[in-house]
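Z., the sequence and structure:
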Amino acid sequence: MSMRRTAAAAAFVFLSGSALAAQAPSPSADSSAALKAAPSYCPPVVETFLPGEYYFCIGSQAFAKGDTLAAKARMQDAARWASKPAQYILGLMYLNGDTGERDPAKGVAWLAISAERHDAAYERAFLAEFAKLNAEQRKQANAYWRDLKKDYTDDVAGRRAERRFNAGMKDMRDADFAGNDVFLDGISPPQGGESGTYEGGGGNHGSRVGGGQRAFAFIRKMDKMHDDYFHGMVGHVTVGEVTYGGTVGELASAPSH
C-alpha cells in the first residue's frame, strides 16, 4: 500500500469521528494520559472547515513527540476555534506545568471554559480541580476566566468557528447542487481526473473537482463532524442542557446534574 493511499485511509478515519478532537478526553490530572494516543495523520484540508479539529490533531502529535511548547501553541490555536478538548488539555498542561509553567488558577480557568457546554467529564474535572484551590487562587482563577471569556467562549470562538465552517462548506454545497464530484487532497482516494479546481473557503486548497467522489458523501461526513464538534453549544440542539452563569466560583458551587 502506497504512502499516499495510507494517508488517505487515515484521513477517512479522521472524518469518521474517531479523531481525538471528536471525543472528550477522560478526566485526568495527567495531560498525556488524557490524550492517550496521537493520530498518525491530520488532513490539512480539514483546517478549511474546522480549524479547531485540525490544530488539536497537530497539537496531539506534538505532545506525543514530547514537544510540549509546540503542543501548547497548537492547542491554543485550536482553543481559539472553540475546541473544548483543546481547552481542557490546556487546563491540564497548566495544572501539571508541562511547559515549565505550573499555574493551578490558570489551569482551572481553562477547565471552566472547556466545561461551558456542560459535558459531564469536563465539569467533573473542573469541579475537582476547583475544590483544591485556596481562596487567593480562586480569586485569580476568576480573573483569568474573565479574560479568557473575551476570546475563547462559544459566544466568540464558537461563532467564529461556525462562520469558518459555513464559508468552507459553501463551495462544496455548490458542487453538490451542480452534481459534481470533489477531490480533497489528503481525504479523497488518490485517483481520478484533474478536471476543474475546488476552492474551499474562498481560496485554492489544492483540491480537485472531477474524478473524485460525490460531493454529497463529503457533505454528510463534514456535517456529522460539525454536529460532534459543536454539540452542546447554545443554539444547537442538546439533551438535558443546564445553564450556569456568573463567575468560576459560582459555577463550582452549582448543583451537579
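The CA atoms of residues 141 and 257 lie 23 Å apart. The two ends are 49 Å apart (CA to CA).

Let me know what you think.
H.
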